[in-house]
Structure formats: structure tokens, C-alpha cells
Write a structure and sequence with these properties.
28% of the residues lie in helices and 25% in strands. With 435 residues, it is α/β, with parallel strands linked by helices. It binds ligand LLP. The site of ligand LLP has 22 residues, from helix 10 and helix 11.
Amino acid sequence: MHGFHYQEGRLHCEEVDLEQVAQEHGTPLYVYSAGTVLGHYRRLASALSEIDHLICYAVKANSNRAILQLLAREGAGFDIVSGGELYRVIAAGGDPRLCTFAGVGKSREEIEYALEQGVFSFNVESEAELAYINRIAAARDAQAPIALRVNPDVEAGSHKYVSTGRSENKFGIALERIAAVYESAAGLSHIRIRGVQMHIGSQITEAQPFAEAIGKLAPVVRDLRARYGIEFLSIGGGMGITYEAWFASGSGDWWSGGGNAREHKPLTIGAYAEAILPPLRVLGVRVLLEPGRLLVGNAGVLLTRVRYIKETGQKKFLIVDAGMNDLIRPALYQSYHEIVPVRQPADGAAGETVDVVGPVCESGDFFAQDRELPTLSEGELAAIMSAGAYGFVMASNYNSRPLPAEVLVRGERATLVRERQTYEDLVRGERGAEP
Ligand code: LLP
């Protein structure tokens, strides 16, 4: 489900013509569909309605204030990994008491800030961190609510950089050691044991690893409930989305999934819920979820304009105005993003095999290699699809390129929700060298 489709020959986000938006705000430009974010959130909430649950949106996927606001108004909680993310949630009107604070390297300042704001739980990743949180809470005469992150050692089949639930990863505490660590937590005066957490990876496209991990944790949850009265199990995020589609299906719907060689079946919310509900139903604790990509991934595109076309002996390059600094996923994970022209190609129009590359001075600065695309000419607009998650948030100023602007679409309205950076922004805070 997503809010992008062709209408009168142009790609639209909901009711908004993306060519007009690009003209008004320039490129590269991130555009998000509010309806898609809310649609995903509501479908997930309704699929899980029979159990007591709280969806804590993983802020790291897209932390724009407007996106956080949309979800805060729906009553969502938030999964945060830094003091900065907590600050953003509060600035967006989110409730800090619905925030789970994850991450392997929380600082003193972050822990103090989170205690002050009364977060729902610290998701603790090591015994050293547990002891540190206890000391900081003691100094403030506070009780820190915690959950330990269990590493269930499950193969989730995703990219090695985003797979987190195997024992060789830096995340969590091994299943065999978890009872002992809870016991030492129970002995700490300023720690309040509140729950247990797991997260096995990201962009997981099958339901089975989730069910397997929950199955492995179920006896632990029962035991912890009996011993310490834990209230919740957080099953993390990681639900995969569709990145690959087939645009020449003739229906004008890029997501209709026709006979593409790269075709794959997405993990649907229904299939996910069906797999996880049976083991969760019987646990008798509240279930927390931390989806990031599922909610926002297909809700965003990166609009870019073709600057130059360059042909070498072997290749044809479309040099676009977005670069790896704007969207690093292809360079970092070799991830596939569909690229579509904003002007709808005529039925049966010719295609060609091209590399789509950015202006950054690195060979890794590409969005597609040897990709069959409809013919695009200089000055034409293209949309890099499924860029709503881990897009803008991972953007940088590399090559001193100002960060792109962001626009949120709701129905017929397109609102600038982050201004494009200027050259002055690039040097703000810098000091000259002493003479
Ligand atoms: N919970 C925890 C503890 C996490 O570490 C993550 C993501 C999430 C939830 C949300 O995962 P999601 O539902 O979005 O898969 N930059 C990479 C993804 C990194 C994911 C890190 N952890 C990418 O662009 O694919």
C-alpha cells in the first residue's frame, strides 16, 4: 500500500502532482505521503487489536517532526536510540512516557534526560549498562524502568549490516545468560524490572523468523512474569517492505508486481500478524512493537532531476542531482530502489540499460547499475521509490552538499516540512583557525 500513482500522465503523491512540487521546492527533494504512513499504522494496529499492544514507531527510520506528529496524534509510542530522538519526540508532541530507549551505548546525559522525562523503559543491552543506569538513577533517587534485550540467536536472512539477532552481533544478551542478568538486576536498588525485549534484524521478508524468536522467548517471558511480574514483551521491529516492483505491468500501478525477474513476495501485515499472534496470545503480557521501515518506507520518494547523460564505450550514465549523501542505501547495502520517471512513459515506449549515478566524487555514488529503465532525457524528473525509511535520516553533508528539503503530502496539500539547507547552514558553528 502506498500513495504514489500516475494521474493524467504524471506521477502523483496522493492528489499532488510531483512535477509541480519539484518545480516549487527544487530537487533533490523527499516527498512523503501522510495517508500511507497512517494507513500502515492503522492496519497494523487493527491486525493486532485482539491483544494488548503498543506500537512504538522506530524514530531512527524517519525523524521528521511532521511524521512524528502524525503518529503521536494516533496515540503511538516511540522507540528511540538517543537523547536527540527523545528531544524530537517531545518537540513533536509525543509522550515520553510511551518511549522505549534502546541502544548499546547510552551516555550519562542521555540516561539522565530519559529519567527526567519518565520514559516507559530503558532497553538494556549489557550488564555494564545496567550497573551504570542504576548508579545514575541512585544519584537522583529515581527508579529506572528497564527491560533486558535478549539476543534469541535467530537467522533472519537480511543483509549482514542490519541483521541483529545472531549471537555474533553486538546486540542484546544471550538467551542462556538472561536469567542470571535479571537476577542481578533484581538486586539493584534503583532498577525496576518492567519487561523484556528482542529485535532480530531489519527488512525481514518472512514471518517465520519472528514466530521462531517469539517461540524461543516464550518460556523466558513466563518465568520472568512469575518471578518479577514483568508487564511487557517488546518484539522489536524489522518487518520488511517491497522495494522491487515492475513498472511495465500495463496497469500504471508500479506495485502490481508483474513478471519481473526480480519479483518477490512482500511480507504482508496480515501474514505477519497471523504468525505472531498465536504465540503472543497465551503470554498474558502487553506486547510492544517497534516498526520503522514498515510504517514509512513506502511512504516516501526522493525526487531527482537528470542533469547530464554521459555515454562511455561500455555504459550509459544518467547523472542525476541526488547523490549518495542524500540516500546512501544503494551505496552502503547494495539495496535496490525502484526508479520511475515522473512523466508516465507511453505504453510500449522504448527502454534502455543505464547506470543512475549522483554528482558525488565516489564510484559508490549510484542508485542503480545496469538497470533497464524507460528512456529519460536531460532535465527530466525521476522518483527514487521506497525512500521514506533510512533516507533523509542517513543523509549527510558530504562534498559540502546542503541537505535536501522534505515535503509532506496530505490529500491535495503539499507542505514543506523541512527547508533545504543553504550554504550558510553548511558553515554554521564552524570557527576559523587561530592566526
Ligand atoms: N528496534 C530496534 C532495536 C532496532 O535496532 C531497529 C532498527 C528497529 C526497531 C526498527 O527496525 P525496522 O522496523 O525499521 O526494520 N539503515 C538500515 C536499517 C537499520 C535498522 C537498524 N535498527 C537500512 O537502511 O536498511
